[in-house]
Amino acid sequence: MSNSGDAALTMPGSADDAGPDPARPRKIIHIDMDAFYASVEQRDDPELRGRPVAVGGARERGVVAAASYEARAFGVRSAMPAVTARRRCPDLIFVKPRFDVYAAISQEIRAIFAEHSAIIEPVSLDEAYLDVTENLQGLPTATAVARAIRATIRERTGLVASAGVSYNKFLAKVASDHRKPDALFVITPEMGPRFVEDLPIGRFHGVGPKTEARMRGLGIETGRDLKARPLEELVARFGSSGAYYHAVARGIDERPVRAHRIRKSIGAETTFFADVDAYDALAERLRPLVERVWGASLAKGVRARTVTLKLKFSDFAILTRARSGAGFLADRAAFEAIALSLLHDLFPLRRSARLIGVSLSGLSTEGDAVPAQLGFEL
C-alpha cells in the first residue's frame, strides 16, 4: 500500500505511443471534491471557515445535503434529518443550498479535466472519472496528471479535491476515498488484487447499506470473503450484480469511462419520518429535491422535456404524474413551478404520503437542446 508521494501509476509503454495498446492497462483517475457544497459556502463566507456547516434545510423536516468536515467530526452526514444533525452538533450552522453556484463551479472544474483528457464521465456535480491512458498534456504518469489537476483546481477555485488513480474505475473510486480529505492515492496493478482482499465490504462501490447487511449476514465481511464465494452463488443471491461483485473482488472492472453518457432520467426522492397529507408540507419537501435534480442536470450538461412527480403513500401504493412538451425546460424556476403544479393537482389526497420524489426525463445534451420557455406547458 502506498500513497501518491511514493508511487506513480506507470504502465508499460508511454504516453507518446502512436495509439493505445490493448495489452496495456488503462490509466483511470477518479476526482472527488472534498465536502463540495459546504466547502463552497466556507470559501464564499469567511465567517463559516473552520466551523461546522451543513448545507440543507434547517427546519424540523429538513435534511442535510452536505456537511463540512468540521460537522462530520460530530457525526453529521448527508441525508441525515436536520433534527438529528442539530442533536449531534448543537453549534451546527445551516446554509441554504445554491445549486446554480455549485453547477457553475462544477463546469469550471470540468474544463480543467478537459485540458488533460477528452474521455470524462461526470458522476455528479462533485465527482468524475477520467481515462488518461493517453493524456493531452503528455505527462509521464497518471499520478502526474492527477497531481496537476488537483493543483489547478485549488489555484483556480480555491477548493480542494481528492483523487484516486488506478487501472480501473472501481479501484480509482476506492483510492479517492482512501485518505480523504485532500488526498491523492494510487493503487497499481500489482497492488490491486491484494488491496481489495483487505477492503471492508461496506467500502465496495456498488454495495449499499441493504446489500452490505445481506452480505454480512452471509459471513461476507471483506473482499477476501467475497472472493471466496463462487460466481454461481453470488448470481443466485444478488442477481445481475453478482457477476460485478465476483469481478471486483479480484480487482477486475472492465467498465469503460463513458464520455457524453446520457442517462434516461435524473431524479431524487425523500422518505418522511411521519406521514404527510398537507400540501404546504409536501411542497416544502419537494423544493430541495427540485434544486438537487436541477443541479445534477446542469452538471451533466443536459436539458429535459419531461417532469415526473412521485408519491408513495402510507399503504405503500405509488402514484406518478408527468408533464411533457415539445421544447426543453428553460430554467430551474420553470421546473419547480411544474413540479408544484403536478403536486397541487393531486389534492385533496385520499391518504397521507410517506415519500415524495421528482425526476427529469426526455434528456438531451446541451448542444442538442434548444431551451424553450415552457412554463406549465412542458
TrEMBL record:
Job of this protein: Poorly processive, error-prone DNA polymerase involved in untargeted mutagenesis. Copies undamaged DNA at stalled replication forks, which arise in vivo from mismatched or misaligned primer ends. These misaligned primers can be extended by PolIV. Exhibits no 3'-5' exonuclease (proofreading) activity. May be involved in translesional synthesis, in conjunction with the beta clamp from PolIII.
Annotated protein name in UniProt: DNA polymerase IV
Location within or outside the cell: Cytoplasm
Enzyme Commission code: 2.7.7.7
Residues under site feature: Substrate discrimination: 37
Catalytic residues identified in the record: 127
Superkingdom, taxonomy of origin: Bacteria
NCBIfam families in UniProt: PRK02406.1 (NF002677)
Keywords: Cytoplasm, DNA damage, DNA repair, DNA replication, DNA-binding, DNA-directed DNA polymerase, Magnesium, Metal-binding, Mutator protein, Nucleotidyltransferase, Transferase
Record's subunit section: Monomer.
Annotated GO biological process: DNA repair; DNA-templated DNA replication; error-prone translesion synthesis; SOS response
CC per GO annotation: cytosol
The species this protein was found in: Methylobacterium dankookense
InterPro entries, A to Z: DNA/RNA_pol_sf (IPR043502), DNA_pol_Y-fam_lit_finger_sf (IPR036775), DNA_pol_Y-fam_little_finger (IPR017961), DNA_polymerase-Y (IPR050116), DNApol_IV (IPR022880), PolY_HhH_motif (IPR024728), Rev_trsase/Diguanyl_cyclase (IPR043128), UmuC (IPR001126)
Family matches, as Pfam families: IMS, IMS_C, IMS_HHH
Family the entry assigns: Belongs to the DNA polymerase type-Y family.
Domain spans labelled UmuC: 28-208
